[in-house]
Amino acid sequence: MNRRISILAALVFGVVFLAELPDKTALAGLVLGTRYRASYVFAGVAAAFAVHVALAVAAGSVLTLLPQQIVHAVTGVLFLGGAAVLLMKKDEDEEEVRKPENQTFWKVSGAGFMLILVAEFGDLTQIMTANLAARYDDPLSVGLGAVLALWAVAGLGIVGGRALMKRVPLRL
Question: What is the spatial distance between Cα 116 and Cα 147, in angstroms, rounded to a whole number?
């Protein structure tokens, strides 16, 4: 039984890690890592991902109870709604880069938490995690693999941002 859990968690880790790596989360972590203390950023981001995975696993468990046609219809409507929002979004002018003023733990981790919570809601990896939880009917293994993958990508982005800041001027 434990072997099945570890194999499934490793499979989910690989799938979610590869799907999240080129996503906006790595870029958000990179940007936050250039401006704020890395441990504070990671604390907020990690908490937001834990919430997302818990919601996705819960949704995946509920999906197994619903008729498949209803699930497909709702999923299609959600994707079309997301596409419409993206098409109607207008580009905003970027503000001048300023040095962050207040870097307390709660402000920085709260900013990281809110950024990820909002940006990742309904994201591909959240939907993928829900689908994997529904398919394998093992919420613990799926949740563990998904959250570790998301934390790994966030950590890479934050550390990458810190390393990049040493070589590239922040204004650039």
Answer: 13
Question: Averaged over 87-112, what is the pLDDT?
Answer: 68
CA pair distance 153, 23, nearest whole angstrom: 9
Distance, CA of 21 to CA of 30 (rounded, Å): 12
Q: Write out the two tokens for 84.
A: 């419409």
Neighbours of 29 (CB within 10 A): 26
Residues found in the chain: 172
SS3 sequence of 3-24 = HHHHHHHHHHHHHHHHHHCCCH
- Are the beta carbons of 129 and 53 closer than 8 angstroms? yes
pLDDT of residue 47: 93
Stated pTM of the model = 0.74
Cβ neighbours of 142 (radius 10 Å): 31
